[in-house]
C-alpha cells in the first residue's frame, strides 16, 4: 500500500484551482493618538486642557460606552457577554442560522481583553533635572465590543471597538463570503465545499475568479479610513 498525503491526492484530482483572499483585517485608528507626544498634543491643544493626564480618558470612555449602549437599546440588538473559554465562532454560527434578513446587526458581543493605552510616568529634564509628566504606552484590561454583522455585499463580518482611549477599531471580512454573495446575486449556482475555507465551487469558474479578484484591498478599504492588512485566519469569525 502506497501512503499519500492529502496534498498529493488533491494534486491528482483537482481540475480547478481559484485563488482569492480569505480573511482581511482593517485596522482603524487615529495616527496622532498612537504616541505619548501625539496624545499629549490632543489633550492640550485640541481639547484645551492645561495638562495631559490619564484622568481625562475615563470620561471619554464612559461617554463612548453610553453611546454604544444607547444604540444597542434603540435598535433592540442582543447583547452577549463573552466569558473565558467561550467560542465566538460557535455562538456566531448559531445566530447566523436563525438570521433571515439580507443584512443587519446580528448581535453585539462584549469581552474583557488586553488593550494598549497610556499611563503617566515621570520624565526628567536632562539639563535641569526637573521632573515632568509624560504619557507612555501601557497595557490594561478593558471591554471590547464586537459588532457581528451581515452585509448584503460582504456577507458575515465583525467590527471590534475598544471602549478605552485611543478607541481603535478592527474590521474583519471574509473574501470568500464576498465572492459567494456576488455569485448568488447573479443567480450562479455554487456548492459548499468539503473544506470550510475553500472557495465556493461554481458552474462558471471564470466568473467566480473575477469576483475573487474584485474583493481587493482598494474596494474593501475605500469606505474605511484605515490601514489595510491581509491576514488569516481571523479569530472570532470562522465561516
Class of secondary structure makeup: alpha+beta
Largest sheet: 7 strands, mixed
Please bin the fraction of helical residues: 25-40%
What form results from the Cα inertia axes? Answer: elongated
Mean pLDDT figure: 79
Radius of gyration: 23 Å
Secondary-structure map with pairings?
Elements: H1 6-13, E1 23-28, H2 36-46, H3 57-75, E2 79-81, H4 88-97, E3 104-124, E4 131-151, E5 155-162, E6 169-174, H5 175-185, E7 190-191, E8 201-202, H6 205-214, H7 217-221, E9 227-230
Parallel strand pairs: 2-3
Antiparallel strand pairs: 1-6, 1-9, 3-4, 4-5, 5-6, 7-8
Can you put this structure into words, describing what you see?
The chain is α+β, with helices and mostly antiparallel strands and 239 residues long. The protein has one domain. The protein is 31% helix and 31% strand. It has seven helices and nine strands; from the N terminus they run αβααβαββββαββααβ. The chain has helices spanning 6-13, 36-46, 57-75, 88-97, 175-185, 205-214, 217-221; strands spanning 23-28, 79-81, 104-124, 131-151, 155-162, 169-174, 190-191, 201-202, 227-230. It has a seven-stranded mixed sheet with strand order 2-3-4-5-6-1-9. Strands 7-8 form a two-stranded antiparallel ribbon. A hairpin with a 6-residue loop joins strand 5 and strand 6. Helix 5 (175-185) packs across helix 6 (205-214). The longest helix is centred in the N-terminal third of the chain and has 19 residues, at 57-75. Mean pLDDT is 79; it is low at 194-202 and 220-239.
